[in-house]
Write a structure and sequence with these properties.
2 domains
């Protein structure tokens, strides 16, 4: 199904979050575990639909769909996923910022490291409109730590791991003390694991 066809199927009327949850669930059920996540993200971004973004993160997160896309390893698909998620993260019109930042940890990519660092260092206007800016920062720092040293059996790309460690080191100079402490904890965890 093309993105334009998906957009036509969704229709032009504004739908509720629950309607979008049903639509995304049906789409994923009919298109496999990973479906065409990028088409869903593209339509949500194109439509500026906060309810659709929230539904996508609510349905795809528990299904581990983002992890499935990353695990398949299709570089072009992964890169597009990271680009779309990054573009959506920079928008104030949805409430899924923290959920999407959490999903980025499944994409060990240099662009992901930069996006996570940017989410910590971002200034208003976007963060001024996000109620949970501190939680978003915490999640992004945790994601950088996982890029540097995954908590599961995933192999880390040395270039991505180095970039994540460097991003965490730069955050040690952040003006917010809680950001500095979180970055330090991740660097300590990485250093401790590397000594073992």
């Amino acid at each position: 199904m093309t993105r334009e066809a998906l957009e036509r199927d969704i229709g032009t009327e504004v739908r509720s979050y629950d309607d979008y949850v049903r639509l995304v669930t049906d789409f994923m059920d009919n298109h496999g575990i990973e479906g065409d996540i990028n088409s869903l993200l593209w339509v949500a971004l194109h439509r500026k639909s906060g309810a659709l973004v929230d539904a996508i993160s609510s349905v795809l997160g528990p299904r581990q769909s983002f992890y499935g896309v990353a695990k398949r390893g299709d570089h072009a698909v992964v890169e597009e996923s990271v680009d779309l998620i990054t573009d959506i993260l920079l928008q104030p019109w949805h409430g899924a910022h923290e959920d999407l930042v959490a999903e980025l940890e499944h994409f060990p990519h240099l662009k992901t490291v930069e996006t996570l660092r940017h989410m910590v260092e971002m200034k208003p206007p976007v963060l001024a409109q996000i109620d949970q800016a501190d939680a978003l920062s915490r999640r992004a720092i945790w994601g950088l730590g996982k890029m540097a040293l995954p908590l599961d059996a995933r192999q880390s790309d040395p270039e991505v791991a180095d970039a994540a460690v460097n991003a965490l080191r730069r955050l040690l100079h952040h003006p917010d003390h809680s950001v500095v402490e979180r970055a330090r904890k991740q660097l300590d965890r990485i250093a401790h694991a590397n000594k073992l």
